[in-house]
Amino acid sequence: MSAQIIDGKAVAASVRGDVAKKVAELKTKGITPCLAVILVGENPASVSYVTGKQKALAEVGMADRSLHLPENTSEEELLKIIDDLNKDDSVHGILVQLPLPKHIDEDKVIMAIRPEKDVDGFHPVNVGNMMIGRPAFLPCTPHGIIKLLETTGIETSGKHAVVIGRSNIVGKPVSILLARRETNCTVTICHTGTKNMAEITRQADILVVASGHPHTLTGDMVKDGAVIIDVGVNRIPDSSKKSGFRLIGDCDFDDLVEKASFITPVPGGVGPMTIAMLMFNTLESAERTLK
User: pTM to 2 decimals?
Assistant: First the structure.
């Protein structure tokens, strides 16, 4: 048996296509959805992510109010910029690219963004609303994972989902979304304190791996036919590549592709979905202004 590869690029393109149609409709009503992405410093991965977001904004026809600030920007200056964007009715979404330079408090910055413009879904108000099932901006990567499962037609109701990782960005929120009535999974979270992890992962029908370490999940840790969603992005030195590195996930893909029923590749799996769901959230924010 060889797993069916879940094509995140294709699903993300479909989401962006739907968003572009709705953006065009909103423009006829005098509203142009607008996202402000703020990047502080020159972190190469962050620069790459922001470039990807800007390309997506152009593709779906949204206004781009991105700001690239120097590394030595003070916390006070950044908070002032966020405050100005909060007050600007033409801006529907604000996203500050993480990580921030060490002299800036990330929590303070996340708290400064108004919840109704927090299209990343990181503000405690949005997290709390997601938790209790009220309308909220869902965090983009976890939301993208749910969308991949839905679009691929994978049955989730009553299934045992195991999430490896408990970060605020992926592990915790995706656990909540998997357990919601709409998805209806029974969820177990594994982390660095978990003993006998392989015993737990072998029970899983669906595995979401967001540990941040290559080869966290190997073939001997899963049962035949499991669905594997690999969230990891790790740079591995590779002299055969022009960049000098290649990207791999948190799963041992070659080992698992023979056992799983479905698996996401890295790159080209979960990654494209994150930006697509960011466009989706920004559109939703703009649509709310009509109401």
Answer: 0.95
